[in-house]
Amino acid sequence: MSNSDWMALVQQHPESLLLPGAMLMKGGPSDYVGAAFAFTGTLFFDGAHEKAVRDQVCDCFDEYRAVAGDHLTWLWREEPPAGPAVQPFADAKAMRKLSADLSEDDLFSFCYTSGVKKDDASPYLFHVSGERGWKARKKSKPLSVLVFSLPILPVEQNPLVLLRLFYSFAKRLKPLHGFAGHSLVMSASRVDENEPTQAFMAEKMKGLDVGDSVFMSSRLRGGFKTVSWLTALSSELLSKVGTVDDLRQELPPSWFAFYDYGGGLVIQAGARPDIGSVELGLPPAYVLANHALQAARIPAFETFHGTSHDGEPRIMGAAADAWLRRLDVAPDELLSYKARLLNEPKLDAGNTVNESRL
Description:
Elements: H1 3-12, E1 18-21, E2 30-45, H2 51-68, E3 74-76, E4 86-88, H3 95-100, E5 108-113, E6 125-130, H4 133-136, E7 144-150, H5 152-157, H6 160-173, E8 177-186, H7 195-204, H8 213-216, E9 230-234, H9 235-238, H10 244-250, E10 256-260, E11 264-269, H11 284-293, H12 318-324, H13 334-341
Antiparallel strand pairs: 1-2, 2-7, 2-8, 3-4, 3-5, 5-6, 6-7, 8-9, 9-11, 10-11
Helix pairs in contact: 2-6, 11-13
Protein name: DUF3396 domain-containing protein
């Protein structure tokens, strides 16, 4: 599918971006939205048990709401110390108020969605999961994670919407790493039965993110998960790949931008996100960014999905390793991707935050 075909689909048949629940499960599909194509930003960070960091997350949510408007419909909470686990957004207290009522050892968990039904996957999503204080103080402490999503069409029409939010959130939270680009958002409450749909689509679209970031966060301290249109790396991880000047030798400024977020860099690969349709080959900007940053990537990941029940596709074992390395190419192939990059749209004031570029 070409980019023009994709845009035609988005504009003329927006309902095709919402997929039925349990679509590839035995006995499916089910009568709810199981997965939604969207653009997603994901940041893995520390300190979500601390009031200062929680306040920053609330500031992120305020920024997000300014973009999402009145689309949010549900609030899910995992193990709330008081109140329901799920309720209509209109009935919920403000996130800042709910956050203030938590102790540092309470789970800092808020998942806002925009579906009609509470189980619906939706293109508007704001989900933060922060570890309890006692767990965060352990030597093997897991990372906290913030995930936010936006519908396809507004970002295709104006990529800066995604870039500005992701960069602002990175400046607030100082993530260890993160990324933003195309995704297939699964139902927040029924992840397992929609993983096969995600696995199937990821075979056709190499730019799609996969897995449940909350599920994976405990195993991503040693390196980043993937490059995408936007990739955030902390100074600690950047030390594994070289200086900004070193990266500029591999990632030319006509197609790549660098933004300092105070604890690392956000790296923009290309003028706009690329879904990576297999019919068109791997996105050259993603391949070159992946090659330049590969030394800081997690070396292995055993599974992005849960266990298969009836033979339905899942990204685990060899499939997980293949997905992790899907943008890897042999050294003698890099020149051809550099040549392909020359035919890609260049960065300009309409697709970069020029005032913040290094």
